[in-house]
Amino acid sequence: MIKTLCVFCGSSMGKGTAYAGSAEKLAEYLTFNNINLVYGGANVGLMRILADTMLASGGKVIGVMPKSLVEREVAHTGLTEMHIVEGMQERKALMADLSDAFIALPGAYGTLDELFEVLTWNQLGIIHKPIGLVNINGFFNSLLLMLDQAVEEKFLRPEHRNMLLVDDDFERLFHKLKTYRPVIAEKWIERLKEGKI
Ligand code: AMP
Hints:
This protein has nine helices and seven strands.
């Protein structure tokens, strides 16, 4: 059951209106389905659109932000809850603890760092939570091709590639998140140690 969703997304708005429109749609979907939002706590870019739309529609929004970013005055001051932490690693760990699943919308280094961190934690069995990617306008197509290439070249196991659930439609993506079955890491690590992979 997904009660609290963590969203990673750009501190920029992106080109055109499609990305902001998608952040608004996601916020409305979450409020309508009574799902709480955890996000980076900023008042900029897609993060701001997401938080503001959710708050305006009566949703619960939890921000997690390192001190340094609060001091740079990018913190959203109207959230339901705000957690101020020491640094970026503590932030990612708390965002993961507070959430039942993750979604990434378009973004840049920050978004990709957060996405790949939780994918790696899932792969190692540190967490067992569904992770989705909203592929608006095919924004992530080349990233997905890169992952396929990593499978092709035997750097990434197909079951780990498939941990990343992709769709451009929220209804379908949430269905995938809710029916996700965690990959058991122990077996994979044992086979890796035995040199069978
Ligand atoms: P980016 O994709 O590089 O724009 O970074 C966005 C992601 O990184 C968000 O999910 C945030 O958690 C984090 N982040 C990056 N820049 C900021 C910022 N100025 N304020 C708060 N969080 C940020």
